[in-house]
Backbone:
């Protein structure tokens, strides 16, 4: 395998593993918890380093995951104390832990190689050189093994608890009543997010692991309202963006992890503008189309409301409609013309009257 | 006494302390409104969003003048803010996700631009990446003056519009019915937050900025039930932690300023949440214990 | 010569409101005469809160006209007081009861000017009127639901308006507060003010109010309680469906 292929595979695995972990996190509106967890990695690594008195990948991994979970637990405890709201609790906890990590590094571990920048940006380009060696046998890039395992773990987690996660996300009360222990599921999900962030940071960096966790599921939610489709779309978006980002970064010789985040951003903002139903463009077009149809319906309901009442004659003149519905002369002429064309009203002597069909439409509209 | 002497006469310490104190006051004051409007994490997102602005400002002008870089940061932060507000108002995406997306995508763009700048390989670029963690120890007088002016204007705006800001933070709907547009006033408040962030990038950097906004407000809230006092205490906590952090970093070996300030702030927040006179957890426990004892006491 | 009809306090014609193009109010015509006490009732989702929010300009109308004392709302803000639903604000906000009541004076103060001694005194008087003078310096989160509602009412009194809109002021309050609020509403009406209340307890409508608006997306009926608050109209508002084809 060439090193370029290896890097591409690492990027792909990171994209898929992170998207899998992110789907339910986003549905639970906890995106910023991923950000907080990612910042806790640095102090976790430091703690692991201090405890094992030297670099030890397994202890570092455990330390970082534990620090991530500590962040979650502390944020929840602070929020439950009702002294601060949840967003403030997140913003209190992770900078404190991160500052502690930076302080310990620069004060006590200055001569040790824990590169703060690398924790944040990652160095995926080094992935091929950091290989897994067991008994002298070279098994390929270590981060590929880590991220590959995460893809499997996360997929198994989702497949196993899909029903329970879905239920506890949309109705925690019912989930508890049915004995699904939503609190346990919550911490399982948080653990999955934490190990995924920790596993991905060495490849793409802590902050950009967060991009891979958050952006694909949110983009997918703009494109589809069905959960299975959202999961599939997240995987595609995460995987493809990672590959495209890597390609673009190699082409222009810039930061790979940064470029992956930029590609994710391009995909998200394209979806924001152009998503078929929920995109801003589709919204604007629909609003324009509906405004004229809606105005016609307002006219029909207005006429129907006053039909067979003493005020019918007064309420049905074009002049009155213009004044009371707040339309301009040109607008009300266009709207009445539209309604006449459809065969919903008839016009005579400056007054409008509903036809049988118009009355039927008004009823349907008002009951909608 | 030595430290006092140094604070006044040691050029480095005086600058670092002054800059950190300024930042503490401005971010403490504006952080109160952000926290009360549940926009605490907006600061985190916008400070990350400022990074590409700093890089672009440098790439376009080739200048490292603080005012140029600050302007770049402010423009990028402002764009980030508008994007976040658009996403929240126009789609069903929740605010946390909107913050997370702008934060990570803008930051990624900043990292890409940093590598572009590094490739140009001119000696002048050194230190741009210090925006990540701040470079309080390298603050020069020119920067302090710029920070002071910008921050001063922001504080004046808060002083003049205190009543309006309070109203919109507490009851935006009611504010709308009496003619104070909550959208416009809210956007102004968030815009001022960008100002605080731009000042903070020089000192504590992108990552720790959110603590500068949230911790003083969270600490101050525990000591008072009045917004005016809360704002004042937050300014004091911010300034005090700024100066303490500065002194620690200058007098101790290997203590970086930003993390030192943030740890001071975090300590203040923890102590306040435990012992604050208005909401402190400990007094609450004591009160509850006493009332239980009183109830159980034989009459 | 006939005496001209006095301008109604609230004049609504053909008002239609839609969220995302889905109508929540259809073609509402409504007159509320001055110096009356009016309840707006209807089932959940009938658009009661939306109606007053639209009149107050908080929600844009898709079509229709609204006049307050014969003028657009924006020209008449100072004659209108508003009591939002209690749940619409964060009661953990760092402020006390007196300060909240003073917010009612901000509209008259205008931009930048701060409340002073006179405003403080006015606010204290308003708190006294709702029986909350002793709680002026109490942090708002330490007030009971009923007390919080009274503080909101005092804030509206401080607005010294000619027309009041109140969104569910009786929701979740204790019996004492309910009686206190009703008495205040009646004395406001006796002083020539117009009061419009979104209300959900049908039983108390005849005793508390003199006029009623029955609403269920469309206007069912409005008028004096004795004339329009009938079993048949209630059935139309809460039960049966309405069809134009039936006519």
Residues:
């Amino acid at each position: 395998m060439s090193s370029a292929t290896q890097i591409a595979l690492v990027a792909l695995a990171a994209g898929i593993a992170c998207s899998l972990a992110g789907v339910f996190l986003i549905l639970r509106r906890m995106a910023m918890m991923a950000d907080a967890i990612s910042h806790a990695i640095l102090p976790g690594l430091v703690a692991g380093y201090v405890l094992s008195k030297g670099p030890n990948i397994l202890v570092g991994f455990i330390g970082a995951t534990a620090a991530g979970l500590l962040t979650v637990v502390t944020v929840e405890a602070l929020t439950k104390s009702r002294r601060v709201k949840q967003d403030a609790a997140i913003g209190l906890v992770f900078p404190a832990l991160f500052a502690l990590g930076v302080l310990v590094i620069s004060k006590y571990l200055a001569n040790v190689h824990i590169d703060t920048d690398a924790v944040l940006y990652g160095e995926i380009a080094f992935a091929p050189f950091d290989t897994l060696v067991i008994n002298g046998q070279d098994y390929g890039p270590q981060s590929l093994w880590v991220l590959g395992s995460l893809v499997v773990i996360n997929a198994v987690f989702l497949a196993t608890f899909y029903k329970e996660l879905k239920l506890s996300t949309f109705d925690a009360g019912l989930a508890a009543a049915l004995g699904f222990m939503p609190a346990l599921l919550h911490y399982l999900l948080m653990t999955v997010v934490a190990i995924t962030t920790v596993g991905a940071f060495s490849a793409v960096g802590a902050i950009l692991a967060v991009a891979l966790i958050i952006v694909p599921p949110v983009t997918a939610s703009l494109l589809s309202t069905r959960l299975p489709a959202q999961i599939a779309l997240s995987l595609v978006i995460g995987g493809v963006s990672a590959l495209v980002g890597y390609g673009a970064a190699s082409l222009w010789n810039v930061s790979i992890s940064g470029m992956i985040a930029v590609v994710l951003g391009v995909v998200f903002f394209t979806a924001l503008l152009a998503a078929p139903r929920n995109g801003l463009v589709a919204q604007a077009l629909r609003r324009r189309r509906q405004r004229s149809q809606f105005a016609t319906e307002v006219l029909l309901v207005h006429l129907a409301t006053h039909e067979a009442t003493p005020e019918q004659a007064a309420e049905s003149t074009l002049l009155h409609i213009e004044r009371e519905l707040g339309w301009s002369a040109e607008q009300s002429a266009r709207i009445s013309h539209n309604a006449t064309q459809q065969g919903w009203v008839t016009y005579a002597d400056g007054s409008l009257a509903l036809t049988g069909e118009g009355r039927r439409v008004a009823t349907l509209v008002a009951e909608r | 006494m030595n430290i006092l002497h140094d604070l006044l006469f040691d050029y480095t310490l005086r600058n670092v302390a002054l800059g950190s104190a300024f930042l503490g006051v401005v971010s403490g004051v504006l952080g109160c409104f952000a926290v009360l409007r549940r926009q605490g994490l907006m600061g985190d997102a916008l400070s990350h969003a400022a990074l590409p602005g700093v890089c672009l400002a440098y790439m376009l002008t080739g200048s490292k003048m603080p005012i140029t870089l600050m302007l770049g940061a402010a423009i990028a932060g402002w764009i980030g803010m508008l994007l976040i507000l658009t996403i929240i108002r126009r789609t069903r995406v929740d605010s946390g996700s909107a913050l997370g997306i702008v934060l990570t995508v803008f930051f990624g763009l900043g990292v890409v631009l940093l590598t572009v700048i590094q490739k140009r390989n001119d000696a002048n670029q050194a230190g741009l990446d210090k925006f990540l963690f701040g470079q309080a120890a390298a603050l020069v007088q020119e920067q302090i003056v710029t920070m002071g002016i910008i921050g001063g204007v922001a504080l004046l705006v808060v002083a003049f519009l205190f009543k309006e800001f309070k109203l919109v933070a507490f009851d935006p709907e009611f504010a709308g019915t009496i003619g104070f547009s909550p959208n416009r006033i809210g956007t102004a408040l968030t815009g001022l937050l960008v100002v605080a962030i731009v000042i903070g990038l020089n000192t504590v950097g992108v990552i720790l900025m959110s603590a500068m906004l949230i911790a003083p407000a969270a600490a101050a809230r525990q000591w008072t039930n009045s917004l005016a006092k809360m704002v004042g205490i937050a300014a004091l906590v911010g300034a005090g932690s700024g100066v303490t952090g500065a002194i620690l970093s200058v007098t101790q070996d290997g203590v970086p300023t930003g993390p030192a300030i943030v740890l001071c702030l975090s300590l203040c927040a923890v102590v306040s949440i435990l012992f604050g006179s208005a909401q402190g957890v400990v007094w609450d426990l004591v009160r509850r214990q006493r009332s239980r004892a009183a109830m159980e006491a034989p009459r | 010569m006939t005496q001209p009809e006095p301008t109604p306090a609230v004049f609504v014609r053909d008002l239609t409101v839609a969220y995302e193009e889905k109508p929540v109010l259809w073609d509402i015509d409504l007159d509320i005469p001055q110096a009356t006490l009016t309840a707006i009732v209807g089932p959940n989702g009938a658009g009661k809160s939306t109606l007053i929010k639209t009149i107050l300009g908080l929600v844009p109308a898709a079509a229709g006209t609204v006049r307050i004392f014969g003028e657009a709302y924006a020209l008449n803000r100072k004659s209108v007081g508003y009591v939002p639903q209690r749940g619409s604000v964060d009661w953990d906000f760092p402020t006390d009861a007196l300060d909240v009541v003073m917010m009612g004076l901000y509209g008259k103060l205008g931009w930048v000017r701060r409340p002073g001694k006179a405003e403080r005194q006015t606010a204290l008087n308003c708190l006294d009127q709702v029986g909350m003078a002793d709680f002026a310096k109490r942090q708002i989160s330490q007030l009971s639901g009923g007390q919080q509602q009274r503080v909101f009412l005092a804030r509206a009194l401080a607005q010294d308006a000619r027309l009041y809109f109140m969104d569910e002021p009786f929701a979740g309050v204790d019996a004492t507060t309910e009686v206190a609020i009703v008495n205040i509403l009646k004395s406001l009406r006796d002083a020539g003010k117009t009061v419009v209340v979104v209300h959900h307890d049908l039983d108390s409508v005849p005793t508390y109010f003199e006029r009623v608006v029955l609403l269920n997306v469309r206007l069912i009926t409005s008028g004096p309680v004795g004339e329009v608050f009938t079993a048949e109209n209630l059935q139309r508002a809460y039960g049966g469906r309405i069809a134009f084809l039936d006519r």
